[in-house]
Amino acid sequence: QKEVEQNSGPLSVPEGAIASLNCTYSDRVSQSFFWYRQYSGKSPELIMSIYSNGDKEDGRFTAQLNKASQYVSLLIRDSQPSDSATYLCAVSQLNGNKLVFGAGTILRVKS
Amino acid sequence: NAGVTQTPKFRILKIGQSMTLQCTQDMNHNYMYWYRQDPGMGLKLIYYSVGAGITDKGEVPNGYNVSRSTTEDFPLRLELAAPSQTSVYFCASSQGYSNQPQHFGDGTRLSIL
Fold this sequence. Notes:
The complex is a heterodimer.
Chain A: E1 4-6, E2 11-14, E3 19-25, E4 33-38, E5 45-50, E6 54-58, E7 61-66, E8 71-76, E9 85-92, E10 99-101, E11 105-110
Parallel strand pairs in A: 2-11
Antiparallel strand pairs in A: 1-3, 3-8, 4-5, 4-9, 6-7, 7-8, 9-10, 9-11
Chain B: E1 4-7, E2 10-13, E3 19-25, E4 31-37, E5 43-51, E6 54-57, E7 64-66, E8 76-78, E9 87-94, E10 103-104, E11 108-112
Parallel strand pairs in B: 2-11
Antiparallel strand pairs in B: 1-3, 3-8, 4-5, 4-9, 5-6, 7-8, 9-10, 9-11
């Protein structure tokens, strides 16, 4: 079992819709969770971090964490073509030294 | 704000050549990382460092070496380049605590021919 799993996609949504991206992780004691966006040919950029169960909202983005079920999700409301990118889920290991990245989900927003 | 700076941005090497990928950060971060990303794949950790003079292997260290003589710099050395090392290399840094995210450089696109 991979430590961090994401559906590779592509996930296609129409402009203005809600995009839902999911990530599951295997290490039950993981404490910190991050979502990165990576445009084609560019480096990953942090868009959300979440540390406790529940929802965290930042503009059009909402991160959801459920530690009991070991999943974290990212919702993008009012999706725009500029949101088309690969979204990487990252989970910190217990000692905090390293992040484990999922392979990413490709999101395509169609206008 | 420079953040994490990587040089060069692009490089073509011949099989068997060696080179050093440079990475420097100006955020006074203790932790630094080297990743490689193959087309359509996620990030794989090559080496990381928790402070000057301290380095450790990641998931895919074979064929690479690192050093960390200062807080700012974390160069990655490729010895005897092989086609399998064709990839995009990202350097990242963080404060290192588990609740701190990593900040990435723009990457070095390396081709081994």
